[in-house]
């Protein structure tokens, strides 16, 4: 089976989960001239020895044709996901998230792939109009990123309807955990809480609410989507905890777990544009539970503790930049 975006945060954890399950995995990392493979460079030797590593780009049609040939299952996670950068470079999000997804789907169709699991995001819902959010909630493109993911989701649905491609859409809510970029709100607050070079914790708007789901829960949802028989092709399935937590409440949890005593500062420069901020997200995941029995196995406090431990190790080992560049 193939995992695109295997070098990323969730992708690297999924590769570990698949190898542990005994799967034969081809892991796609985006090619770069530095010879690095993202977070795959930090997985264990046992995991690395159990995969076939490929470097390339989902935007390359011919490359994807060759890579998908012979694969039975494709987990498609490769995407541009940083919302702030999507305001500055929206074309790149269309190129990767829409055209790249089209290349994956077309290659899967041409080579008779048995199942494609396409990764969506809770951001496609925009601010919750009703709570909790079910899969029938309207889709709202409140950022160029979310608009590109809506388009990719619709392309996946279209390939099922037009070509009977067995594609299934997983819609994770606010996954967090070890290896997540500091662009993510929970990672940046933990980093700043632990980093002695940070006298305060600088964040954006503290009022929005989110459904934070630990990364191994999301991986378990992917594994279920890759094998369950009770799923309906072409439709989306939410994966969230159903627990709604404000950013301000999450800061208090982090301060408690880390033992930090630092002021929290809201920086207007870190706010999204007024019409683009997603004010509330909380998942209704009953469809996925009913289809394959998935429920989160790691609760929020346990997940935060595991993530804090990972960051303590990173900072203690000097594996993070000793500067404030990550705050911009």
Word description of this protein:
With 328 residues, the protein is α/β, with parallel strands linked by helices. The chain folds into two domains: 203 residues, NAD(P)-binding Rossmann-like Domain (Rossmann fold), CATH 3.40.50.720; 93 residues, UDP-galactose 4-epimerase, domain 1, CATH 3.90.25.10. 40% of the residues lie in helices and 15% in strands. The chain has eleven helices and 13 strands. The strands form four sheets. The protein has a seven-stranded parallel beta sheet, with helices on both faces. The chain is globular, with a radius of gyration of 19 Å.
Tell me the count of domains: 2
Poorly predicted residue ranges: 323-328
For the secondary structure, the number of strands is: 13
Could you name the CATH homologous superfamily of the largest domain?
NAD(P)-binding Rossmann-like Domain
Order of strands across the main sheet:
3-2-1-4-5-6-11
In N-to-C order, the SSE pattern is EHEHEHEHHEHEEHEEEHEEHEHH
Broad structural category: alpha/beta
CATH architecture of the largest domain: 3-Layer(aba) Sandwich
Distance between the termini: 38 Å
The biggest beta sheet, please?
Answer: 7 strands, parallel
Instruction: State the name of the first-level CATH class of the largest domain.
Output: Alpha Beta
Number of helices: 11
Strand content: 5-15%
Overall average pLDDT: 95
